[in-house]
UniProtKB/TrEMBL annotation:
Superkingdom: Bacteria
EC number: 2.6.99.2
Family listed: Belongs to the PNP synthase family.
Organism the protein comes from: Kriegella aquimaris
Subunit structure: Homooctamer; tetramer of dimers.
Keyword Protein transport: no
List of residues binding 3-amino-2-oxopropyl phosphate: N7, R18, D191, G213, H214
Site entry (Transition state stabilizer), positions: E151
Cellular compartments annotated: Cytoplasm
Protein name: Pyridoxine 5'-phosphate synthase
Record-annotated active site: H43, E70, H190
Amino acid sequence: MTKLSVNINKIATLRNSRGGQVPNVLKVASDIEAFGAQGITIHPRPDERHIRYQDARDLKNIVTTEFNIEGNPIPKFIDLVLETMPTQVTLVPDAIDAVTSNAGWDTVSNKDFLKDVIATFKQNGIRTSIFVDPDLKMIEGAALTGTDRIELYTESYADSYAAGNLEGVKSFTEAAKLAHHLELGINAGHDLSLDNIEYFKNNIPHLEEVSIGHALICESLYLGLENVVNMYLNKLK
Ligand SMILES: CC(=O)[C@@H](O)[C@H](O)COP(=O)(O)O
Ligand SMILES: NCC(=O)COP(=O)(O)O
C-alpha cells in the first residue's frame, strides 16, 4: 500500500481569495483524514500566498495522521518546522518567485548544505525527504546527505503520460530501484492525478507515499472530496 498525503494548499488559496475562514483549512484537513487519507501536506511559501505560517502552527494541533511540511529551507522555514515538529519535512529548492515547484535538488553541489539541514531535523526526530528529479546521479547524491527519503518530482511523468507516452515512467522506475538499493524511502509528487496515479504506482517499486494537491482538489469540484480521496485510496492499494 502507498500512503496518500493530501496537499491542502489549494484550500488555503480559496480561503485567501475572500479573507475570512471559508473554506476552513483546519476543518478540511480533519475531514480529509476522516475520509481515509493517511496524511496532510502543506507547502508554505515565503509570500504566504496560500498556506500561512500560522496555518502550520494551527494544523499541528489538528492533524492526527502524518503531517508533512514542504519548502525551501530558508531560516524562517527551518524555525517553523522546528516549532511545529511535523512527522516529515520535505526540502524543495524553490526559487523565491516560483509559481510552483519546478525542479529537484542538485544533491551533488548542495551536498554540504543539505547534510547540515537534514542533520538538524533528524536530531529533532523529524523524518526528512528531499525533492529530486529521476536522475541516478542525484539519487546517489541524495543518499550521501543522510536523508531518510526522497520525493520523486513527477511533473515530467505526468506530462508524458498525458501525451500518451508510457515510456516516461521508466526513469522513475530506475530511480526508485536505485533509491531502494541505497536504503532511501521513496515518496513522489507533483501533478499526480486520478488519470495517471495507477500507472505510476504499478511501475514504481517500494513507493511509500504520494502527496497530491492541485489535481485532487480540482477533481473534487466535480466528484466531491470524500469520493475523490477514496478513489485515490483504491488506486493506491
Ligand atoms: C513540491 C511540490 O511539488 C508541491 O509541494 C507543489 O509544489 C505544491 O506547491 P504549490 O501548491 O505552491 O504549487
Ligand atoms: N509534493 C507534491 C505535492 O504536495 C502536491 O503537488 P501537486 O499535486 O499540487 O502538483
